[in-house]
């Protein structure tokens, strides 16, 4: 099966310098996969997403996107001036106008049906994230790219949101590329995890990454939780996904 996006030796620099943000990254995402990028603050997660989408120049390497690829993107920071009145309906029609029926269908998919006439400023954090996801789904994407989609949500809200993403993948067959800080939830809902710190520290199934020394060195005590998850979930089936790197050998 051909990759939706594939990158080889991707290297990016801080603008105007030769100071690398990302070094020599190999990456691919296939149709229907859920791939999550984790890493500490400043490790280059958003930069990787932007470079893969062609929003940031490469210093070296190459990125290939499937020519017909439709992407639904939720960027990390969505800045809205809440002083400007804007209904959900109008927001969904920016920049491309959609019919009321298409808007309602997308809102139904993300469990916020009936909110079209609501002002954006009157939505809860969880509702707003769902509206953003609905907007990303409007043009029937092959790939959803979500940069920290659960920021501002509480633990139950976060869990519910990841369930929703899995459900959307099941319904639409779209692949999902996410950045997240919610290690435990990520480990439960991803097919593959990429642990980034300027370079790919380790990569593979959630189970593989959670036991990798590089991941544990980066996340310390927090990593213990995800490891415990796998100690208690031996029945979890990720056999269909192959690990791409041996973390220990990578260094
Ligand atoms: N436009 C830019 N100009 C200068 N430096 C930048 C720019 N974009 C990113 N950087 C730097 O690149 C590094 C990686 O930033 P990036 O936002 O990709 O990290 P991140 O892993 O997404 O971080 P976080 O978890 O905090 O969102 C940081 O040191 C950041 O300051």
From TrEMBL:
A GO BP term, please?
response to zinc ion
Organism for this UniProt entry: Paracoccus homiensis
List residues of the ABC transporter domain: 5-222
Gene3D superfamilies, A to Z: P-loop containing nucleotide triphosphate hydrolases (3.40.50.300)
Q: What is this protein called?
A: Zinc transport system ATP-binding protein
Q: Which PANTHER family match?
A: METAL TRANSPORT SYSTEM ATP-BINDING PROTEIN TM_0124-RELATED, ZINC IMPORT ATP-BINDING PROTEIN ZNUC
Alphabetical list of Pfam families matching this protein: ABC_tran (PF00005)
Q: Which UniProt keywords are present, listed alphabetically?
A: ATP-binding, Cell membrane, Ion transport, Membrane, Nucleotide-binding, Translocase, Transport, Zinc, Zinc transport
Q: Where is the signal peptide?
A: none
| A molecular function (GO) term | ATP binding
Q: Does the keyword Repressor apply?
A: no
Its domain of life reads Bacteria
């Amino acid at each position: 099966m051909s990759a939706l996006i594939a990158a080889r030796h991707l290297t990016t620099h801080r603008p105007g310098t030769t100071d690398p943000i990302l070094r020599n990254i190999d990456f691919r995402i296939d149709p229907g996969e859920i791939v999550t990028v984790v890493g500490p603050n400043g490790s280059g997660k958003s930069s990787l997403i932007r470079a893969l989408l062609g929003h940031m120049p490469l210093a070296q390497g190459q990125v290939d996107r499937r020519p017909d690829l439709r992407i639904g993107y939720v960027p990390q920071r969505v800045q809205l001036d809440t002083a400007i009145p804007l209904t959900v309906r109008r927001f969904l029609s920016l920049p491309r106008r959609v019919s009321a029926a298409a808007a309602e269908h997308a809102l139904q998919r993300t469990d916020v049906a009936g909110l079209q006439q609501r002002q954006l400023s009157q939505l809860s954090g969880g509702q707003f994230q769902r509206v953003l996801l609905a907007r990303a789904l409007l043009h029937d994407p092959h790939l959803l790219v979500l940069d920290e989609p659960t920021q501002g949500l509480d633990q139950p809200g976060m869990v519910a949101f990841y369930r929703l993403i899995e459900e959307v993948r099941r319904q639409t067959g779209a692949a999902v590329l996410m950045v997240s800080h919610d290690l435990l939830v990520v480990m439960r809902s991803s097919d593959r995890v990429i642990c980034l710190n300027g370079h790919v520290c380790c990569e593979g199934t959630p189970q593989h990454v959670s036991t990798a020394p590089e991941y544990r060195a980066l996340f310390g005590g927090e990593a213990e939780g995800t490891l415990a998850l796998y100690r208690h979930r031996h029945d979890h089936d990720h056999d269909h996904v192959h690990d791409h790197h041996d973390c220990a050998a990578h260094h």
